[in-house]
Amino acid sequence: MGEGDTIWAPSILPLDTLGTLSYHPQTHFGRKMESKVSEGGLNVTLTIRLLMHGKEVGSIIGKKGETVKKMREESGARINISEGNCPERIVTITGPTDAIFKAFAMIAYKFEEDIINSMSNSPATSKPPVTLRLVVPASQCGSLIGKGGSKIKEIRESTGAQVQVAGDMLPNSTERAVTISGTPDAIIQCVKQICVVMLESPPKGATIPYRPKPASTPVIFAGGQAYTIQGQYAIPHPDLIGCIIGRQGTKINEIRQMSGAQIKIANATEGSSERQITITGTPANISLAQYLINARLTSEVTGMGAL
User: What is the pTM of this model?
Assistant: First the structure.
């Protein structure tokens, strides 16, 4: 944004809580920029990053990607989800602030729906709050906390949401996790206030974004392609599945007996030559089965002989 660009104040926020917005507080020192309200809300494109577990991401994506498609269409925000081979994923929401708030509202209500659904099968009576984790550049966390914690206290009190800023930066980054929990409405109000703080205090210096590390999954390289065994799923290439099964299933039975895990091999789906292997059992059984399958594939690929 250029020096002279005007920041529009969101019409959704009462002006007294908003104060005046200036993108360069230090350059406009002494004369606060007037905040102008437009019907289109805050005319600024923001990017907010969320840290989610695989299960939460699955809920946001929905069957065949229907949920995330609906969220994108209805909110008008861009919603991107980082690579899938990690226990943690980053969900990036970009757009004008009103689109971001709509997307957040949809995510918060979806998580609440998941909580209600999971409670219908459990004896628990009190409903746990919805929890979202934002990833915020550490250089902006000071403004979010405020002098002596004054700003974060004000956000907690005015929204009714719990807000916690992690003391440490996320691994290999200059970002911190900000955990927000409460009712969906409290979370939405809280995100609005955090957005205002982030606009008033842009990040200082370069930010090294947090990138979740893939779970340490075995990777096999063969024929210029990589195959991974991930969680309880392994997707080897069709020309390698035979070596796992063995003649009349001898190899797969051997692996089942040695690992104590259940191993199912799905039929190839139409239009795809991949076949999915599902491994179930205790974590130790699963790791052993993964190791044996991996060793089996590696020996086949490198021609090291049979396992």
Answer: 0.58
